[in-house]
Amino acid sequence: MKKILTFLTTILLTFSVTADDHMTPPTMFPIEGIQCKYNEGMGLADLQKTVAKWNKYMDQSVAEGNPEYSAYLLSPYMIPGSEFDLDFVWFGMWSSFNDLEGITRYQTEAQDIEREFNAVATCHTRQLAPSLVVRPIEASEAKGEGNIVQIRSCKNIGTPQETLAAFNQFGSRLDELGTDMAILLMVKGPGTSSSADYDFLQMNVSTAATFGSLYEEFWNKGSMQGLSLADAIDCGPTRIYIGTALRENG
Fold first, then answer.
1. Closest of 112, 117, 231 to residue 165, by C-alpha
2. pLDDT at 2 > cutoff 70
3. 7-247: CATH, from 3.30.70, 1.10.246, 3.40.50, 3.40.1130
4. FRET label pair with 148: which of 55, 183, 206, 245, CA 20 to 30 Å apart?
């Protein structure tokens, strides 16, 4: 299994983020999230068979000049079932918004594969989120076991620039601790529910070992004292998924 989200490191080389009020706004890239439930009698093995066919189509499509696309499977691990009735999230990325032209090409060229996906799972919702990386991940799970993906819904307390400044400060503290964790911010875009009460989603990605060590530092060693995002953002509870790569860009 390839390393999950190493794509993010490449993106960050181009999409650097600072909080200077006078700078050009950071460049965003598109992420889509599709929430799905397996149809009766279907499961992960069935999805993987269809993904294998989809990957063959994508290899040929990209070779013909169509846009690349990365995809990850997020499997719920610690989420409130009463709020999120799903079996998995299909999490997809393009390198730029120009690559969204691939949407209609796929719908035209791969209808048979899409029918197979629909036979495996029913996906009721799909959102497109303009996103940015505020901190990359240097290493990810290389044994195919997946990474820990933490997601929470947040509101800006001050300006977006102040939010970015707070995340930069937080990232610097993680650097001091030697914590290898990616942080992405995803703002509301097409497909978002009209009742969605947040400004952006914060997503953290790390290995399970890093996830555990950071919680140890936070709860038992006091390493994060004096450094809080609470003055800049107001976030709901964290939801945890296991993330594994289905296809990686490039």
1. 231
2. no
3. 3.30.70
4. 55
In sequence order, the 6+-apart residues with CB closer than 8 A to the CB of 246 are 51, 55, 71, 72, 73, 90
Percent of the chain with pLDDT over 70: 84
Q: Hey, which bits of the chain come out as E strands? A: 29-38, 70-78, 88-93, 121-135, 147-156, 182-187, 200-206, 233-235, 239-247
* Coil, strand or helix at 93: strand
Q: Are 124 and 35 in contact (CB under 8 A)?
A: yes
Transcribe 2-29 into DSSP letters. Answer: PPTTTHHHHHHHHS-----TTSPPPPPE
pLDDT confidence of residue 239: 96
Give the tokens for residue 197.
């009460």
Q: How far apart are CA 203 and CA 182, in angstroms?
A: 8
